[in-house]
Amino acid sequence: MKLKLDNDACQGHGRCFALAPDLFDADDEGFAVLLVEGEIPTAQEADAQLCADNCPEFAITVVDD
């Protein structure tokens, strides 16, 4: 399972880094920054899906590989 972030769609609501600070951070302007490259650890898969489900701009997607 991998995370994808559409930086152009992100509006900086901050839900992702509030819900999963191990997966996301914010840049200096408040936009999301993905902290995990490649496969998401199994223990964080539920957090990744929670972030995707709560992104109001649908900027986060979870991809099964």
Q: What structural keywords apply?
A:
23% helix; 22% strand; two-stranded antiparallel ribbon; 65 residues; globular
Number of helices: 2
Q: Please state the average pLDDT score.
A: 96
Class by alpha and beta content: alpha+beta
Shape: globular
Q: End-to-end span in angstroms? A: 6 Å
Helix content: 10-25%
Instruction: Give the amount of beta strand, in percent.
Output: 15-25%
Q: Give, in spatial order, the strands making up the sheet with the most strands.
A: 1-4
Number of strands: 4
Report on this model:
The chain has 65 residues and is an alpha+beta fold. It has two helices and four strands. The protein has helices at residues 15-19, 45-54; strands spanning 2-5, 24-26, 32-34, 60-63. The strands form two sheets. It has a two-stranded antiparallel sheet with strand order 1-4. A two-stranded antiparallel ribbon has the order 2-3. The mean pLDDT is 96.
List the SSEs and their pairings.
Layout: E1 2-5, H1 15-19, E2 24-26, E3 32-34, H2 45-54, E4 60-63
Antiparallel strand pairs: 1-4, 2-3
Outline of this structure?
The chain is an alpha+beta fold and 65 residues long. The chain contains 2 helices and 4 strands; from the N terminus they run βαββαβ.
